[in-house]
Specification:
Helix content is 48%, strand content 20%. It has 475 residues and is of the alpha+beta class. The protein folds into four domains: 2-149, no CATH class; 167-216, SH3 type barrels, CATH 2.30.30; 224-304, Alpha-Beta Plaits (2-Layer Sandwich); 320-458, Jelly Rolls (Sandwich), CATH 2.60.120.10.
Amino acid sequence: MLAFIQSYPLLLGTGLILLDLLLWHLIPATHRYWRVASRTLAYALFTGVLLSGGMSPLQPPPWPDDASRNLIATLLTIGWWLFGARTVTVVFGVLMTARGSHAGRLLQDVVGALIFLAAVVAAAAYVLQLPVKGLLATSGVMAIVIGLALQSTLADVFSGIILNTTRPYQVGDSISIDGTEGKVVDIDWRATRLITGTGSLAVVPNSVAAKARLLNHSRPADRHGVSISVVVPAKLRPQRVFDALEKSLQGTSLLLKNPAPKVSVKASTLESVEYEASGFIADAANKTDVRNQLFDLAHRHLEAAGVVWNADLSVPARSRQRELLDEVRVFRSLTSDERDTLSQHMTAVEYLADQVILGIGDRSQHMLLISRGVVSASAHDGKRLVEGGRMGPGEVLALEGLLDEEDSPVEFRALTGCMLYRIDKERVRGCLAQGEDVKSALTKLQRFREQKRETLLMQKPTVVKKGGFLSWLHK
């Protein structure tokens, strides 16, 4: 075998290069470790063939009298340097990929270019016996000329290297760079590309991104801030507004308990005061929905606390009972006179925080309308109570017994101090007898709640996969 290698080193060397290229294209890109292993093995065999055939990458070919053989040997030894540079680059790329899917790509390209440059210079010095010092001096002058001509481009390149090594953001993160907000879709040599909220492509030069004030809304991955601002008349006592906005925050179950949500004064004038209610959620995809829900809850709780915007003094003030009937969708089909009559038979009842309003299996003789406070609705999954949602002013409890003879399948508990209004179910049945609209609205509401309860109980807890030592090293 050794004699065969020594007899045909040029043929075997050429065959190994072709074999390496063939294996690199045949092995799928997803099996990158197999590709690296095959390339490393081919390079090791190629090195052994050159050394066994009497050729050294550190010296010119030993056949100066045989022009064709000398030419092929020269090409093979030069190929050894380039082959080695490619192998080292591929191994380095695998190491950078293990660190992050995209963060090391730009650094990998730069290091790969430097490795190939070093291989070319080494091949010129050892194989071709060229005067490398003069070549380096000439290339240095050219580098200075090119560098002066491409100052801004080089600033973007080196800024991109810094961004990719320090990783203040990655592909897929939602960031804001000097007021330009969007989702990162690519980071290349020159710029960072964002898709904005309007669907436009924003291209931010890396040199600008490296110097600018940057906000990464995707980190930390399990905590994202959400806030709303509400402006109310300055004559209102701040504590009243604080209580209403705190109940709004408690009415959103998606807000994290730690860090705790808070309410603060943001700005004030002689005419108005701006308040901010803020908290944190676990999933950034829910940010818009939570903000919309907070605005709705803030309006309802502030209205329940007596906050009125642009009040029409020419219209007589109405009772809280009458306002509730206007807010509840079930009773909107009633005429104004019918709602006036019904509001006169509503009785207020108060509940302390953590007090059960209606338990599972209970049946109330009254329909309950929430006037003030936050109520938690929980269903039993066979082992424990699972919270299905939270309710606020203008929502209805204790619908069971109106359209059927079922008992309450849900427990309603006061999360805060609450005030509810009771309506005798016989009077509600009288409204049902007068028209089908109220009955239809009640049926839809009850069916919606049943579907929500079934969906909640069918959900299975997420299985948390435990990672081992290798998983920790990979991260």
